[in-house]
Structures are given as structure tokens and as C-alpha cells.
Design a protein that fits this description.
- The complex is a heterodimer.
- Chain A is mainly α.
- Among the domains of chain A are: about 70 residues, Serine Threonine Protein Phosphatase 5, Tetratricopeptide repeat, CATH 1.25.40; about 220 residues, Neutral Protease, domain 2; about 150 residues, Tetratricopeptide repeat domain (Serine Threonine Protein Phosphatase 5, Tetratricopeptide repeat, Alpha Horseshoe), CATH 1.25.40.10.
- In chain A, about 65% of the residues lie in helices and about 5% in strands.
- Chain A contains 37 helices and six strands.
- Chain A is globular.
- The two termini of chain A are about 55 Å apart.
- Chain B folds into two domains: about 230 residues, Rossmann fold (3-Layer(aba) Sandwich), CATH 3.40.50; about 50 residues.
- In chain B, β1, α2 and β2 form a beta-alpha-beta unit.
- Classes of the chains: A mainly alpha, B alpha/beta.
């Protein structure tokens, strides 16, 4: 999964939408009806009991169970247990935030209520928060016999890929209750994730298989997850959370007909939580997309931008496949499917319920879903780097049969971004600097925890950075073959410490030391001077606002050099370029902007201003190369295509001009006649006269009196 | 004698004059004051550069009396054959009943403005109201032979608009002249500014708070996408907001009259062919279109000599 980088304009990304949110809120009408009925029928509800609610819940009749618990809770406002029941029901229905509210209400009544503390721990685990284990321990303190809390500790440990701890915690749970399904399921998952064909811990219960499915899902072993969900449903067809997970996983793998069947069954049976509803909604919009297929690729684009994006995406997909087939020595057994979503909310449905923050792309076996550049603020993400990142997952997951740990596949993916150009690499962002400064990078054998159960939101971003740097380090010191060897090891379900010892011939702790010794000099200056940089950054930008160009030129260079990786909003490069321009020193301004681009600056307007400066200086080839970068960042910039098309013509590259003018036309320009005429000129340059005539006809059909087009048509007709 | 006769002929054949009245309103704060003035200046400069027989009047933050006086002056001068273009830039308000254009002192209402414009004899008029809530002015300003363009679809779109910036741009950007006849019509300028406004909100990932509309039937509510079959957009398509080239001069040269007639006939044939496009096989359409376009290009070449 590719995340939005830490340094991106200092914007905090919202938590990725979770699988489920408050069904009592979503089904508002149902709630109102329920509430009113509850009041009207209060007299008849006296017979309702917790046991009745539980029975309805067990039958998958969530709405009715909810009514019972709500009525009980309203009649007994001082009873924390009813709030706990409501919370557990909400959690099972897939609304952890709703559940959290219920557990908080219970804790307000009784702050040591073990069930409520356990509920909070379960919510935290569901949201992949770092505090789940602490909360489970608190629940155990409140009630040492609370086996569910003990089993939850096992689950959380396994989510962190801490197999040893997971097994210990699970056995403790079984010591408390030898029949505990969750503990058995954790132990069974340990065996099954290690590719054992059979396990003595088979839970033989539907909910146990749901848990096993969860671990396969978390380890991106979707086919096995699907099998586990199906097994759960064989035992209990009304276990709707399992059917919902099954439907969503089928959708993620592009098995849409099967997915639709399962999700519609959920919905029509009353299990219509946000995950189910939103996925069905997304699937109903598939007719807005169009598919382009080659032998090795399937590209799915929204019709409104398909014509514009296709050439650029196809070229990058082909390039990545060529590179990766050679690097990983692997031919994929089928095409890679890339789905591009212009509406981020549609993409977010694809990633719902997955750990991580603000994802830009996600890979499910050979299926990649990602944001379209049009779904993001221009310059806020480099779509080609994201695509390269995700496509590397296809290879690492295939090579290891999805056994690669999260940190390693993400690390390789981040590393791969920089192999095209250093400009595509992740920059050292403020979060990473803070983490290095505070010694918060994780040891390699627990790095997965930073992705799955971060102790702070920034830890996910920092973990991506760290994993990427680790792969840079391994490649640099041990060579690319070491990475391949590690991938082959992981395919046999070996754990990270064993792989490190075997392939790098060092102990994990020693590896960490060597890594930090390698990393420190690269970031030392930025880490040491970060506080001064922050102050200087504010000061220089205040000077920019006041147009105090002397102050900018006096202070700016040193601030820039304290943190050269900072190329986000209001960077020192841009400040200095403005100051130099104001002082009439265009050459120095250009030099600053060149450094900005070289360091990975991605703001299309700044890149365009550099291109214009280079054009003014007569450096058209350089200007064209600079502008071409925007195609990989924000190809929806029509002015850029016009400018680049013109430059390509000027420097004798009509094929590039053809591509650019096609992009102009695909973007439904304001002036289509001019766009057709420009394309005709490019075809003339490429000696494709027939196509040129077609474009001229198109131009003149719109604007019969368009003189330059008339002249060119006459000229071509004479020849 | 020959020259004098020609001059007389040209004078008789001279096209109508166009009166442009651009008014920027009260900003309420320096940023808006400056922004409105800049747009008004931009429009004024474009119109002056375009040349031709025009009267360009720009009023910046005028009082109600100044607006009344200037429009009354235009009413005295303008003739039925003339064109009138009034452009309003600034803030507007709509309380559900009255639209008001915000100016220093007492605001001017939509009804008062309509009354002043009705008294101007210019046979064809175009009012481009680019203020917030400008959609609320349509009911007052619409009438036969008047194009009304507003930055918002109703009086309830109350946020400051960006439409004015792009309408001003349409008057100087050749891209606005979609049919390349060297004249930007009211419809072309509207579409240009509407397109750019939509792009502005899309690119900035902001919810659009303005939706420009055009009304030229004298009875409609204003349309985002004028429907030609319902007669919408016809007057606006034929209403020249600004001439970008020298075609007007050529039109006045009697020596080129036969060529101009030929050109017009060819243009009509092309229009007819385009109209029949769906009924013709593609190859046949393409062949006929090519022939007509080549003939037109040759006539134009002769005209340009």
C-alpha cells in the first residue's frame, strides 16, 4: 500500500475509513422507528431479556437484537452491562466508533467495568491502534478471569507478527477456558500461516474461521481468506460479518459477480453496514469505467478521463513490467490489473478495514487500485511513483506466495520508486526527522508493528520511510541479489530474524546498529538543525510576505541547506527564486527552481514557472524535459500539454507533440479547433499527412473560417 | 468624386456602434475593492484594444446617481441599431424579493437597473451580472432582445464569485473564439468563463458555490447549457461581445462584396452539410466537407490578398 508522504504540505491525513461505522446512525430511519416503537411498546417490552437479545444476535438478526438491548438500556439507564451489550453488538455489526460510544457510556457508569474495558480494547484492535494490548491488560486487571481479554492479547500479538507472544497468550487463554474459540483460532492461524496443512487447534466453529480469515486477510493471502470465510459460512450461513468480508475480498480480486452475490445476500438479509452498502454502491458505478487490455495488463479508467490518462498509464505499466520481470526474474502468470479512481471515496472503499493511513494505492495479488491524479490536489502525489510502488508488490507477493512480511514488501516498494529517478524517492519529512531524533525507529524484527499497530499516527509513515531505507541499505551493502534471496526465504515462511541471519550474516540487533550507522550521516544535518530550520522557515516566509527580498536572500540559503529535502509548500527554493526574480537575477532564480525539481519538488505551477524561465533563456530542450515531469504528477493540466506540445514541435520531436496534443484534445479543451489544428501540425511534422488532414477537417468542421487551418489544408492539398 | 462616393457608401453601410458600460461595485474590504477594480480595468483595456466603433465606459465604485447619470447619457446617444453591453462586477444581495448591486451609498436594485436599461434605445442588449447572488437579478433584467448572463444560478448563491475574472479573460483570449470567426459572441464568452470557473473549483477541490447561467429568450430562468432546440442561446450566439480581428474591416469593403457573398454561401453549405451529417455515409460526408472547406479556404485566401 502506498501512503501519502509525511512531508506533503504538512497535511494530516484522516484515518482511512474503517470497515464499519454506527449502524444506528446510518439506518437513522430505522432507529427513529425503533425508538418510537420502543416508547409505544414500553409496556410490552418488560418480557424482553438479555437472553432474547443474545438469541436474536446469534441468528444474525442485528436490528432486532439492537432493539432489545436499546429498550433494556433505556429502562435501566444505570446498568452498564446493557451499554456493553450494545457496544459488542455494534462492534460485531462493524461500527467500532459507535461501539466506542457505548463502552464509554458503560465506563461512565462503572469505570472498572471489565466488559467495557475489553470492549474498548476490541475497538482499538479493530481500528489497528497501538493501545489495544494495554486496554486488554486493564480489562484483565478488572476481571482476571475474562478470557476474551486474554484471547484478544493473543490476536493483537499475531497481528504484529509476534508469533511467540501470540502462542503464549493464546495458551494462557486456553488455560482459563480450554474451549475458547478465539484462542484456538489464533493458534490455528499460526499453523496455517506457516503453511501447515493441518492444525490441532482447528476451532470447528464459524467464528473461529472468521478469525482465521482475518489473519489471512491481514497477510494479504486473499484466496485463503476467502476459503476460511466460506468454511465459516458452511457452519453458520447467518454469520454476516464473514459473508461481508467474503464479498469484499472477492470484489478486491476482481471477482465481481461472486462478490455481488454475497454482498446482496448480506444487504437483503438486513446486514447493511457501511462496508456492505458502500461496496455495493461502488460496484453499481462500474459502468462509468472502461477497460483497456493488453497481453500483460488490464487498465481500468473512469470514462471521463480515460482518453487523457491511458497513454501515460499504459507507458508506465509497460515500463514497470519490463523492469520488474528482469529484476525479479519472474514472469507473472496473468495480467496485472490497475484500477484508477478519480473519486477518492471510491478508492477508499477498496481499502476500508485495512491497516494504515491515507492510502494512495493498494495491491491485492495482481489487482491494484489507486487514486487518479485528478482525485488529489495537484502536486500532492506522484501517480507514477505510486504505480511503480504498487506494481512491485505484485512481484514480491507473487514471489513469496504472499508470505512476505509487510515491512519488507513496503520497503522494497519504496526503494523501487527511487530506482527510476532520485526525484521520485521519498523525502525525509518532519515526522521522520522527529522519529530519528527521538530514537523511535523500530528494530527490524518488530518493524511490522509500525504498520499494523502504530503507537502514533505518524509511525506508519515513519515505518514506510524506515523500511525503504533499509532496502536501500541492503541493496547498497549486500547487493540486489540479497533482496531476491530474502524474498525466496520468506516464500518458505521463515521469520525475519532467521532471514537476516541467513542472508546478511548478522544478528538482527547488529543489523539495526549497522543500519543506523549508515543512515545517520545522511540525515544528521537535517536532524540536528531541524529546530533552527523551523524558525528560519517561518522567518523567511514572513519576509516573502513582506517582499523583503534582501532578508530572503540573506537568510534563505542557509535555511535551505539545513533541510534540502524540504520541497513542500513555501519551500526555501521557491522563496529564493521569488527573491532573485524580484531582484532581476533570473539566472539565479532558475538555478533555485532547478534545485527544487531535482530534490523532488512536485508543485505543477512551480515546475511550469521553471519551464517558462528556461524557454525565456532559449533552453527549450531543458524546458520540455522539466514540463514532462508534470505528466507523471498531474496530467490534467491542459496548459502544460499545450506548452509541451509547442516545445516538442520546436525541438523537432513531433511524436511527443502528437502525444501532448492528443492529451489536450482528450481533456475537452475550450478551443477544440485550435487543438485539432495543433495536432494536425504535429502529424505534418511526423510526416503522417492523412492523419494531419483528418485533424484539419476536424478543426475546420468546428470553425470553418479558421485561417491557419485553411492555409495548412490548402498546402497539404497542393502536395 | 469616386472616393467621396465610396466614403458615403461606407458611412451608410457602417455597422452599429457598441456601448460598453462596466461597473465595479463596493468591495467592502481592500482585497475585494482591488480585485473588482482589476477586473473592470482588465475588461476596459481589452475593449479599447479591440478597437472598432465602440464607446467604452468604466465606472469604479460609483454612487447610484453616477450610474443613473451615465446610463441616461447612453440612452440619449444610442440608436436602435446599436448594441449595449453592461457588465457588473462586485457583490450583490438577494433577499428573496429584491436583488441589489452593492455600491457606495444606496445600493441599486435589479428593478431600477432594468428600468434604466429599458430606456436605452439600443435594439440588442447584453447584461453580464457577475456579482454574488446575481441569479436573483434575472427576473428583473430579462426581456426580448436582451441577453442576460449571471455568475450564479439564483439569488441564494451568496459567496463571492470568480466568474468575472474569467469573463474578462474571454475578452482577450483567442481561445474564447471557438468558431474562429474573430468575434467572441456573448455565448462564446459565457461558455469560456463557465468552463474556466468549473475548472477553478475542480482543480482546487472546492465545492462550487456559483453556477453561471444565460437567458436570452426574455422569459426563462436562465440555463447552464442553453438548449438550441428550445430557442435558447440563439441571440447570444449572434451577439458580438468583442471583435478580435480585422473581419469587420473586410466586411465594410465593397470591392470584396462578391467574395464575401461567395464565402457566406459556402459557410451556409457547410452548415447544411453538418446538419445532415448523421444521414450521410462517413466517407461521403468527409469528401463533401473537404471539398467545401477547400473552396472556402481559397475564397478566404483571395479575400486576404
Amino acid at each position: 500500500m502506498r501512503l501519502l508522504g509525511a512531508g506533503v504540505r504538512f497535511r494530516e491525513m484522516a484515518n482511512s475509513p474503517q470497515r464499519h461505522r454506527g449502524f444506528r446512525e446510518v439506518t437513522e430511519n430505522t432507529f427513529v422507528v425503533t425508538f418510537v416503537c420502543g416508547l409505544l411498546l414500553a409496556g410490552t417490552l418488560t418480557a424482553q431479556t438479555v437472553q432474547q437479545g443474545d438469541a436474536l444476535w446469534k441468528q444474525g438478526r442485528y436490528s432486532e437484537a439492537n432493539e432489545v438491548f436499546m429498550a433494556l438500556s433505556e429502562r435501566n439507564p444505570g446498568n452498564a452491562e446493557y451499554h456493553v451489550k450494545l457496544g459488542r453488538l455494534s462492534l460485531d455489526y462493524g461500527y467500532p466508533d459507535q461501539a466506542q460510544g457505548d463502552f464509554e457510556k458503560a465506563l461512565a457508569i462503572d469505570k472498572t467495568n471489565a466488559g467495557a474495558l475489553l470492549g474498548m480494547a476490541m475497538v482499538s484492535a479493530e481500528l489497528y491502534e497501538g493501545k489495544a494490548a494495554d486496554l486488554a491488560h486493564k480489562a484483565l486487571e478488572a476481571d482476571p478471569k475474562l478470557v476474551e481479554a486474554q484471547a484478544l492479547l493473543a490476536r493483537v500479538a499475531l497481528e504484529d507478527n509476534n508469533d511467540k507472544l501470540a502462542a503464549e497468550e493464546a495458551h494462557k487463554a486456553l488455560d482459563m477456558d480450554a474451549k475458547n474459540v478465539e484462542a484456538k483460532a489464533v493458534l490455528a492461524s499460526l499453523d496455517l500461516l506457516a503453511d501447515k496443512k493441518e492444525t490441532q487447534w482447528d476451532p470447528h466453529e464459524a467464528r473461529g474461521y472468521l478469525t482465521i480469515g482475518h489473519f489471512f486477510f491481514l497477510n494479504r493471502r486473499y484466496d485463503e481468506e476467502i476459503a476460511a470465510d466460506r468454511k465459516a459460512l458452511e457452519l453458520d450461513p447467518s454469520l454476516w460479518p464473514a459473508r461481508a468480508d467474503l464479498g469484499v475480498s472477492l470484489m478486491r480480486l476482481g471477482r465481481n459477480d461472486e462478490a455481488l452475490k454475497e454482498l446482496e445476500l448480506c444487504y437483503n438479509s438486513g446486514f447493511k453496514n457501511r462496508l456492505v452498502s458502500n461496496t455495493l454502491k461502488l460496484m453499481s458505478t462500474y459502468d462509468r469505467f472502461t477497460t483497456f487490455t493488453t497481453d500483460k495488463t488490464i487498465l481500468v479508467l473512469n470514462k471521463k478521463e480515460a482518453e487523457l490518462l491511458r497513454p501515460y498509464f499504459q507507458a508506465e505499466m509497460d515500463r514497470n513490467l519490463r523492469d520488474y520481470e528482469a529484476k525479479y526474474k519472474l514472469k507473472l502468470s496473468g495480467p496485472v490489473r490497475v484500477e484508477v479512481y478519480p473519486d477518492h471515496e471510491d478508492f477508499a472503499i477498496r481499502t476500508a478495514g485495512m491497516p494504515g493511513l491515507g492510502a494512495l494505492g493498494v495491491t491485492f495479488q495482481r489487482v491494484i487500485a489507486m487514486d487518479s491524479p485528478s482525485g488529489r490536489v495537484p502536486g500532492s502525489f506522484h501517480w507514477a511513483a505510486t504505480l511503480r510502488h504498487e506494481m512491485s508488490h505484485v512481484f514480491t507477493l507473487t514471489m513469496t506466495n504472499s508470505h512476505v512480511p509487510r515491512w519488507f514488501t513496503e520497503g522494497i516498494a519504496v526503494h523501487e520508486e527511487g530506482t527510476v529517478s532520485p526525484e521520485w524517492s521519498d523525502r525525509v519529512g518532519p515526522n521522520e526527522i522527529e522519529a530519528i531524533k527521538d530514537h523511535k525507529l523500530l528494530p527490524i524484527d518488530t518493524l511490522d508493528r509500525g504498520f499494523v499497530h502504530p503507537t502514533a499516527p505518524a509511525q506508519v509513515i515513519v515505518s514506510y520511510f524506515q523500511a525503504g531505507k533499509i532496502c536501500d541499505f541492503i541493496t547498497e551493502k549486500w547487493g540486489w541479489d540479497a533482496i531476491l534471496a530474502m524474498l525466496h526465504d520468506y516464500a518458505t515462511s521463515v521469520d525475519t530474524p532467521t532471514v537476516i541471519r541467513k542472508e546478511l550474516k548478522v544478528e538482527p540487533a547488529e543489523f539495526d546498529k549497522q543500519f543506523m550507522a549508515w543512515l545517520d550521516p545522511q540525515v544528521q544535518k537535517q536532524v540536528q538543525h531541524f529546530s533552527e530550520w523551523r524558525e528560519g522557515f517561518k522567518m523567511v516566509n514572513a519576509a516573502v510576505a513582506k517582499k523583503d527580498w534582501d532578508a530572503v536572500l540573506r537568510e534563505g540559503p542557509a535555511i535551505r541547506d539545513d533541510y534540502p529535502d524540504y520541497v513542500e509548500a513555501d519551500s526555501m527554493y521557491e522563496a529564493l527564486a521569488k527573491a532573485y526574480t524580484a531582484k532581476g537575477n533570473n539566472a539565479a532564480a532558475t538555478k533555485e527552481l532547478q534545485a527544487y525539481v531535482k530534490n523532488g519538488g512536485r508543485d505543477p505551477e512551480t515546475i511550469k514557472s521553471l519551464a517558462k524561465q528556461l524557454i525565456d533563456a532559449g533552453k527549450k530542450e531543458e524546458a520540455a524535459a522539466v514540463l514532462d515531469r508534470i505528466n507523471l504528477i498531474f496530467p490534467e493540466d491542459r496548459d502544460m500539454h499545450v506548452l509541451l506540445g509547442g516545445l516538442a514541435m520546436d525541438i523537432g520531436k513531433p511524436q511527443e507533440a502528437i502525444r501532448e496534443y492528443h492529451a489536450v484534445l482528450a481533456d475537452k479543451p475550450l478551443d477544440p479547433a485550435q487543438a485539432h489544428y495543433d495536432l494536425a501540425r504535429a502529424y505534418v511534422g511526423a510526416k503522417q499527412t492523412d492523419k494531419a488532414k483528418d485533424e484539419l477537417l476536424a478543426a475546420l468542421e468546428i470553425a470553418p473560417g479558421f485561417r491557419p487551418a485553411q492555409k495548412l489544408l490548402l498546402k497539404l492539398s497542393e502536395n | 468624386m469616386k472616393t467621396a462616393a465610396l466614403l458615403l457608401l461606407m458611412a451608410l453601410a457602417a455597422p452599429a456602434a457598441t456601448y460598453y458600460v462596466t461597473i465595479s461595485g463596493l468591495g467592502g474590504e481592500p482585497d475585494y475593492d482591488q480585485r473588482f477594480k482589476m477586473v473592470a480595468d482588465d475588461i476596459g483595456n481589452s475593449l479599447k484594444k479591440a478597437g472598432g466603433d465602440t464607446n467604452v465606459i468604466t465606472l469604479e465604485a460609483p454612487k447610484r446617481e453616477q450610474i443613473r447619470a451615465k446610463l441616461e447619457e447612453v440612452a440619449r446617444e444610442a440608436k436602435p441599431a446599436d448594441l449595449l453591453v453592461v457588465m457588473l462586477i462586485g457583490h450583490g444581495t438577494y433577499d428573496g424579493v429584491d436583488y441589489k448591486f452593492n455600491i457606495p451609498g444606496t445600493d441599486i436594485s435589479g428593478a431600477e437597473l432594468a428600468k434604466l436599461l429599458d430606456s436605452i434605445p439600443a435594439g440588442k442588449q447584453c447584461v453580464v451580472n457577475m456579482t454574488s447572488s446575481s441569479g436573483g437579478s434575472i427576473e428583473f433584467l430579462r426581456r426580448p432582445n436582451r441577453v442576460v448572463i449571471t455568475a450564479t444560478k439564483s439569488g441564494t448563491e451568496k459567496n463571492a464569485t470568480v466568474f468575472a475574472r474569467y469573463f474578462a479573460e474571454a475578452l482577450r483570449d483567442p481561445a474564447a473564439d471557438a468558431d474562429k470567426n474573430e468575434t467572441v459572441s456573448a455565448l462564446e464568452a459565457f461558455r469560456y468563463a463557465q468552463h474556466k470557473t468549473t475548472e477553478f473549483y475542480d482543480t482546487n477541490k472546492r465545492l462550487a458555490t456559483e453556477h453561471a447561467v444565460i437567458e436570452d429568450t426574455g422569459k426563462g430562468e436562465g440555463s447552464k447549457d442553453p438548449n438550441a432546440e428550445a430557442g435558447e442561446g440563439r441571440l447570444a450566439a449572434a451577439f458580438p461581445i468583442v471583435r478580435l480581428g480585422a473581419n469587420a474591416a473586410a466586411a465594410r469593403d465593397p470591392l470584396k462584396k462578391p467574395l464575401l457573398d461567395q464565402k457566406e454561401a459556402l459557410e451556409q453549405q457547410i452548415d447544411q452539410l453538418k446538419y445532415n451529417k448523421a444521414a450521410l455515409p462517413e466517407a461521403q460526408y468527409k469528401q463533401q466537407l473537404t471539398q467545401l472547406l477547400l473552396q472556402l479556404a481559397k475564397v478566404q485566401e483571395a479575400l486576404d490578398k
